[in-house]
Design a protein that fits this description.
By secondary structure, this protein is an all-alpha fold. Helix content is 69%, strand content 2%. It has one domain. α5 packs across α6. The radius of gyration is 16 Å and the shape is globular.
């Protein structure tokens, strides 16, 4: 899933069940791993270096393509944050900005932690990286023509369920 989808769904789930920012962060974080096994499309990161011998050896090469990727990822995350705030404030009628922000950060955080792992090979992050790689590997990568509408559908399903629960 792209970061926008992770941010939005994390916010929808978290704001449906809590007004505590710490719990919202945790729910957002957990939601990331709920979404990753769903067949989806991810945009290509040109600085990503795949290691065919082991998924834990992947990396991102710092350079010109990394800057372009960073702008793409940043735009994706910012769009997810903006849409999350709009949905939470105007559709779900949530007024606690800290809860929305915590859920967005929680929903997005597992992906940047992969980058931290690739650059540091931290033993502290190794279990999370193994789990993230495993759970993401349960999914099928699909063509953008199907993947983008599917991610929109995932958001709409979670939003619809949230609205039903909140009634």
């Amino acid at each position: 899933m792209i970061l926008s989808t992770h941010a939005i769904v994390g916010t929808i789930i978290a704001t449906t069940f809590t007004s505590n920012p710490y719990i919202a962060f945790s729910i957002g974080f957990a939601s990331h791993f709920i979404l990753d096994p769903i067949p989806h499309w991810d945009y290509k990161l040109h600085s990503f270096k795949k290691d065919l011998e082991g998924k834990l050896n992947h990396d991102m090469v710092l350079g010109k393509t990394f800057i372009v990727d960073l702008m793409r990822v940043g735009t994706d995350a910012m769009l997810g944050m903006i849409i999350s705030f709009i949905i939470a404030l105007y559709v779900l009628k949530v007024s606690t900005l800290q809860v929305i922000l915590a859920s967005v950060i929680g929903g997005i955080l597992p992906d940047p932690l992969q980058f931290v792992y690739w650059k540091t090979r931290s033993k502290l992050l190794l279990p999370l990286q193994k789990f993230h790689t495993w759970i993401h590997g349960r999914s099928l990568d699909i063509h953008p023509i199907y993947g983008v509408p599917l991610q929109i559908l995932v958001v709409l399903v979670f939003l619809s369920v949230s609205l039903i629960i909140k009634k």
